[in-house]
Amino acid sequence: MPELAGVDRDEAPTPFFSHKTAKLFHADSLDWLSAQPDNSLHACVTDPPYGLVEYTPMQLAKLRAGKGGTWRIPPSFDGNKRSPLPRFTTLTAPELDQLERFFTTLGERLLPKLVPGAHVVVAANPLVSHLVSYSLGKAGLERRGEIVRLVTTMRGGDRPKNAHEEFPDISVMPRSNWEPWLLFRKPMVTTVAANLRKWGTGGLRRISEDQPFGDVIKSAPTHAKERALANHPSLKPQAFLRQVVRAVLPMGTGTVLDPFAGSGSTLAAAAALGYDAVGVELDLDYAKLASEAIPRLASLRVRSEA
Question: How far apart are CA 178 and CA 221, in angstroms?
Fold first, then answer.
């Protein structure tokens, strides 16, 4: 495994970690984006801190200590330890305003760095996806729909707190059976064909000659073997990520960005496909985790691997 670079953010040009076609930087993603040349990134696939509050140092400390805070630490079920979940229902009006401002700023920083026709895929949550979508659109990105990840999680479906027996037939919220991934594109000034010839972007790579890329993807929860390699609360499975990452570089060339790299699962998916990828992670512990997890996740064989 390559040695880790120093973590001094004044040395931004030097990756914190590299593996095959993937590079990881330890930095603030907004600052890092500002320093990148225009028209240098061909796609963005990310699972951002769309609650913002849950990834502050104080809340991460509570999560790592198993004390909860903004994070809901579910009990074990059938002998399996369930992953923590951020409590989006607890977000206050000022925090929701902060979320809107953050994603507007992210879109504004990201837009000039993308080549025309570059796709942006952002994981969201049904409770806040409307704010994220509005903010990215306000920044100038063109909404292109939504990718539905069909997956049953442990979110929702609970009876009223401290009144389970009184209201046994009531659920406070529906049990979650899907996850929205917002789809955007940087506007083009030419046709898709012309943009593909010049930039290699503008469309989505088909699954096969007879099957286009679809906006509904069946997905299981992240397998325990992957969580053992990358202990991150928002880890998404390689089987799902590789399908999305493969689609966003329609010609198979270019660079995929993940500005909130976490444990490096998007970078691992790109490395498994042979795509160039760059990730940015602010939290040092997660950056160190990613440096170990990326090679291991990239080497996994999954059924949906293209």
Answer: 11
**d(Cα 259, Cα 193) in Å, to the nearest integer?**
28
Q: Is the dihedral of CA 32, 184, 255, 297 positive or negative?
A: positive
Residue 13 inside a domain? The answer is no
Cα Rg of the chain, angstroms: 19
Q: Answer yes or no: is 9 within a domain.
A: no
Q: How far apart are CA 192 and CA 202, in angstroms?
A: 5
Strand duo 142-150 + 216-218: pairing: parallel
What is the per-residue pLDDT across 216-244, written as a single tens digit (0 to 9) for each?
999 999 999 999 999 898 899 999 999 99
The structural domain count of the chain equals 1
pLDDT in tens, 99-126: 899 999 999 999 999 999 999 999 998 8
The alpha carbon of residue 138 and the mean position of all alpha carbons in its chain are separated, in whole angstroms, by: 20
**Residue 1: pLDDT over 70:** no
* Structural domain boundaries, residue 116: 18-298
Say if 143 falls within a structural domain.
Answer: yes
| Other C-beta atoms lying within 10 Å of the C-beta of residue 211 | 8
Residue at 1 is within a domain? no
